[in-house]
Amino acid sequence: MASQLSGSSTSNPSQIGKQKSKAYLSSVAIQSDATKYRQKYKELKRRVREMEKENDQLQIVSLKIKQNIQRLQLERAILYERLESETSSSPSTKPTQQSNHPTPSSPSKTAPETEYDIGLELENLT
User: What are the residue boundaries of the INO80 complex subunit F domain, all occurrences included (predicted)?
Assistant: First the structure.
């Protein structure tokens, strides 16, 4: 029992094999491990660069989306103001405004009268 605790037992072959493998590591094996680690490092570095590039592209897309949201919020505010001014105006002015706009059955190429009309034309172009 005392010999097992001291670690000098030669009856266990697995311990002997492990000690020999550590003792007899050649420089070729060490170089082989170093080469594997270098290749792994290069692969990981390449993957990090790809992820950073993809992240940059997603950031650009995100910024464009945020700008579109701000533009649409501004357009909505303008439309709400116009709607409010239209509803507060007298009913006698509404028929004249409706007659200025072409009907869907007879489209014509006239200059847009409001920013809203300009926005619609821009949306139709895209």
Answer: 37-83
What is the chain's length? 126
CB 114 within 8 A of CB 81: no
Structure tokens at 120: 């619609």
CA-to-CA distance for 110 and 121, rounded, in angstroms? 11
Q: How far apart are CA 38 and CA 96, in angstroms?
A: 79
Q: Tell me the two tokens of residue 117.
A: 């009309």
Query: What's the Rg (C-alpha) of the chain?
Result: 39
Question: How does pLDDT run across 9-61, given as a tens digit for each residue?
Answer: 455 555 554 555 554 567 767 778 889 999 999 999 999 999 999 999 999 99
Q: Is the distance from CB of 9 to CB of 15 less than 8 angstroms?
A: yes
User: What is the rounded CA–CA span in Å between residue 94 and residue 86?
Assistant: 8
Query: Positive or negative, the Cα torsion across 53, 58, 63, 67?
Result: positive
- Which is higher by pLDDT, 110 or 74? 74
Please tell me the distance from the alpha carbon of residue 100 to that of residue 88, in angstroms, as a whole number.
20
